[in-house]
Design goal:
The protein has 858 residues and is α/β, with parallel strands linked by helices. It has helices spanning 38-50, 120-131, 135-141, 151-154, 157-167, 171-205, 208-289, 291-324, 326-424, 439-483, 487-532, 537-553, 557-628, 632-694, 699-723, 767-787, 807-819, and strands at residues 2-9, 18-21, 27-31, 69-78, 81-90, 96-102, 112-114, 143-144, 728-736, 745-755, 758-760, 795-799, 826-831, 842-849, 852-857. Strands 2-1-4-5-6-7 form a 6-stranded antiparallel β-sheet, with helices on one face. Strand 14 (842-849) and strand 15 (852-857) form a beta hairpin. Helix 9 (326-424) runs antiparallel to helix 10. 18% of the residues are buried.
Length: 858
């Protein structure tokens, strides 16, 4: 990974936007005072790439109130591609990360194509796959971060193996082991499935003899049922022929029965007609017996009709005059309705006037109370103005006292000094002008000074008391003013209420005057007109004339009703007369029809007797045949049952044949499955060997053992250079167990360091010596990683590694850095030591300002 450009804002000490371009150098020193923000640049790189730094979460956000988020953008080159990572952490919100690659497709050069995944975790994993390393591997191999320089050296042996494994790209072997194990488990599952299928096949093959015997038994039963079916089919054909003949005879019996039923219906019809004609003849005989009465009733009805016609003419004249009454009656009713409505309105208005008059006294009482309230509020308003004046005076006195007391104090001190001079002087003289004073003048001057001092003292103490009591007086006045705060609003509301009540009283008075002047007399007049019916006089006169004319007609309604009733009742007389005439005309034909019907009924009786005898004879013959006839349904059911049994048995025979025939197929399938199982078993054995080979004790362990000598050689070369040949380094991969009874050795990865004193633990070396060891190991790991396949570390960063070295040690570290300079595209050294700034060709100066950390490349 080669950094190209770094942009950061709101990140740690970098409040304002800062951009650092790495393209102009390959070796540079990052310098600045402690706390200026040097290490924060490296934190920005690791946070952009992996989302990790020395601190996490919102602690990375600059603590200035104006900063809302920490944002870092890093452009870097890797494997001939340029990538961009943008990571942001807004305050109080979820962080985000975006990944881009610079397009190299013709026509799209210079365009950033997104590689961001759906989630932050997936995008971080994609960055790790691109770099072929995670945060721990990155910082252990090429980042000498402040406070983490000894991370590899102080790690446990198992952790060192893990770090080396990641540096050497051995994680892929764990992937291979997992895939081999997954394939092995899949093949074992397939073997178990094959074993299950083989057990099923063998179980069926073991049933072979029983299946063949069962087939022979079913075929024998089938032959027996076939004979029974043929016998039953012949018997059924014979029964069906018998039933066919019997059915023909039944049809004949049905025909006889049909003829007999037809004769019965004809007889019933003739009997009904004969009965109806006899009833008609009896009715006609009864009407003819009453002929004289019927004719007399008809004559009376004709006379009543003539009288009704005369009455109808009088009624017509009466109705015409009666219709003339409608218009005057309507006019009377309309005028009466108008008077009643006006009376109702005036009565309601009278009730409103009475209610308003009752409210009048209440409103006057409210008005008097409001006037008293206004008087009280105006008094409070005067009090508030007085309090405000007192408050202004109190504040002015306080300001004056605060300004006056220092002056009074100075004047009193001056007077005291002059008094002391006058009282202590052997030769009195004026302390102001220096002229000699007589004793009397001196005493007079002393007395005058005393008086002036007492006046100033009294004034001083009065001011002090005022200042001491100022807050209390101020609070008291404030409370009193607060109590009077709403006086203006209350006074306005009271005046508004007075205006409303006065308006209501004026309205009530106007309404009362209007009522007494106009409406009350009108109400009395309307009541008189209604009581005396003294309205619509012209219509009433017209109505009286019409009623006199009706009386002259002499129309009697009751007599008219009686005549109408008589006429309606007489209608029956006309109908009776028509019935009498009909009876006289129809009596002869009916008597002749009755005689013919009686003769026809006798003939039908004889025919019905002959038909009944023939039907009974045929029915007896059929009953005798049915008693001897076999049951056709039973014969058909027995044949059907035998066929059903035969069909089921044929299906059983087919199934049994199929089961016997499948045995040969199962034998072939068993042979194939056994061959497949053998191949799978061999594949499982091969995968098991691969799984063990890919495990940590297999190929990865061998690769680590092969890499260790190279790492040791490179480390010792650098360490010897840094320590002037006094220190050496090597790995110890095995050691004895604490349990001395065990003969084997424990796998480990211990660090062994020697100097001129001898072999010592890492912790026993000084800070400068430990850093030389760490620096040598780190550079060795970086060089090994750069020479192997997998991840490429093309950037080396050393954060504050020189502080623990003496002058000679620092010089050797600089020489070591120059020694490996060609192995890296970028080398950055962070230091706050002034004497090292000019050693490097490029310096990145970091300065802490009021706007946050700033960067300048020199």
């Amino acid at each position: 990974m080669i950094p190209v450009k770094l942009k950061l804002q709101g990140f740690l000490s970098y409040r304002e936007p800062v951009t650092l371009d790495f393209t102009g150098f390959n070796l540079a020193c990052i310098s600045g005072h402690n706390g200026a923000g040097k290490s924060a640049l490296l934190d920005a790189v690791t946070w952009a790439l992996f989302g990790q730094a020395r601190r996490r979460d919102e602690s990375l956000i600059n603590n200035h109130p104006s900063v809302k988020a920490a944002e870092v953008t890093l452009d870097f080159d890797y494997e001939n591609n340029r990538y961009r990572v943008q990571r942001s952490n807004p305050r109080g919100k979820t962080s985000s990360v975006e990944l881009f690659i610079l397009s190299q497709v013709p026509g799209e050069e210079g365009r950033w194509k997104p590689l961001t995944e759906r989630t932050i975790r997936e995008t971080d994993q994609k960055i790790e796959r691109i770099l072929k390393m995670d945060y721990d591997t990155f910082t252990n191999a090429s980042f000498f971060l402040q406070g983490k320089a000894d991370q590899f050296a102080t790690a446990r042996p198992s952790e060192r193996k893990a770090i080396l494994g990641k540096i050497l790209g051995l994680e892929i072997w764990e992937t291979y082991r997992e895939k081999a194990g997954e394939q092995r488990r899949q093949k074992e599952k397939e073997v178990r499935e094959l074993d299950g299928r083989l057990r099923e096949i063998q179980s069926e093959l073991d049933e072979g003899p029983q299946r063949e015997a069962h087939l022979r038994e079913l075929e024998s039963k089938l032959d027996e049922l076939a004979g029974q079916r043929e016998e039953r089919a012949g018997f059924l054909d014979q029964v069906r022929s018998y039933h066919t003949a019997l059915e023909e005879q039944r049809k004949m019996l049905g025909t006889l029965k049909s003829h007999m039923e037809t004769t019965l219906r004809n007889r019933e019809r003739v009997e009904a007609t004969l009965s109806a004609r006899r009833e008609e003849k009896t009715a006609y005989d009864k009407i003819l017996a009453d002929a004289e009465v019927i004719e007399k009733a008809y004559q009376d009805w004709q006379e009543a009709r003539k009288a009704l016609e005369a009455m109808e003419e009088v009624a017509t004249q009466f109705r015409k005059h009666e219709a003339l009454r409608h218009e005057p009656l309507r006019l009377i009713q309309v005028e009466e309705a108008q008077l009643q409505q006006e009376k109702q309105n005036l009565t309601a208005q009278k009730a409103q006037i009475e209610v308003a008059q009752a409210q009048n006294d209440v409103l006057k009482a409210e008005l008097e109370a409001l006037n008293e309230k206004i008087e009280g509020l105006e008094g409070k308003l005067d009090l508030r103005e007085q309090l405000e004046s007192d408050l202004q005076k109190l504040q002015a006195d306080q300001a004056e006292a605060k300004a006056e007391n220092p002056r009074l104090k100075a004047e009193m001190d001056t007077l005291r000094a002059r008094l002391d001079q006058l009282e202590a002087a052997d030769e009195p003289q004026c302390p102001v002008c220096g002229q000699p004073l007589s004793e009397a003048d001196r005493e007079a001057l002393i007395a005058n000074y005393y008086k002036e001092g007492e006046d100033r003292r009294d004034r001083y103490y009065a001011n002090r008391d005022l200042l001491n009591n100022f807050e209390g007086s101020l609070r008291q006045l404030g409370r009193q003013l607060a109590d009077l705060k709403g006086v203006d609003a209350a006074l306005r509301e009271a005046h508004q209420a007075v205006d409303r009540i006065e308006n209501k009283l004026a309205t009530i008075k106007e309404g009362q005057q209007e009522w007494e002047k106009t409406d009350a007399p009108r109400l009395a007049e309307i009541e008189r007109l209604l009581v005396n019916d003294d309205f619509a006089l012209e219509a009433r006169a017209q109505l009286k004339q019409i009623e006199n004319e009706l009386e002259e007609l002499g129309y009697d309604v009751e007599a008219h009703k009686h005549l109408r009733l008589v006429e309606q009742t007489g209608t029956e007389a006309g109908e009776n007369l028509r019935a009498l005439e009909q009876a006289r005309a129809a009596l002869g034909p009916i008597e002749r029809e009755i005689t013919g019907l009686e003769e026809q009924l006798g003939e039908l009786e004889e025919t019905l007797s002959d038909q009944q005898a023939a039907h009974d004879e045929e029915a007896a013959r059929i009953a005798a045949l049915e008693a001897e006839m076999p049951d056709l349904a039973q014969a058909e059911a027995e044949l059907h049952n035998i066929k059903e049994l035969e069909n089921r048995l044929r299906m059983d025979v087919g199934a049994a044949k199929q089961k016997v025939a499948v045995l040969e197929t199962l034998q072939r399938r068993k042979a194939g499955l056994l061959e497949a199982r053998e191949a799978l078993t061999q594949r499982i054995a091969d995968l098991g060997q691969l799984e063990r080979a890919f495990g940590k004790d297999g190929i990865p362990a061998l690769l680590i053992e092969q890499a260790l000598p190279e790492i040791e050689e490179t480390t010792n070369t650098l360490l010897s250079r840094l320590s002037n040949g006094r220190m050496s380094f090597n790995f110890m991969t095995q050691r004895e167990y604490k349990d001395t009874s065990r003969e084997d050795l424990k796998e480990t990865l211990d660090i062994v360091i020697r100097d001129s004193v001898g072999e010592r633990d890492y912790e026993m070396f000084s800070g400068g010596e430990a850093f030389r060891v760490n620096f040598s190991i780190r550079l060795a790991l970086s060089k090994v990683l750069a020479q192997r396949a997998g991840a490429r570390l093309q950037t080396l960063v050393i954060d504050e590694g020189f502080g623990s070295q003496d002058a000679q040690g620092r010089q050797r570290l600089v020489e070591a850095i120059n020694l490996v300079r060609d192995d890296f595209e970028k080398i950055l050294v962070i230091t706050h030591l002034e004497e090292l700034k000019d050693v490097f060709p490029t310096r990145i100066e970091v300065e802490k300002t009021t706007q946050g950390s700033q960067v300048q490349v020199i």
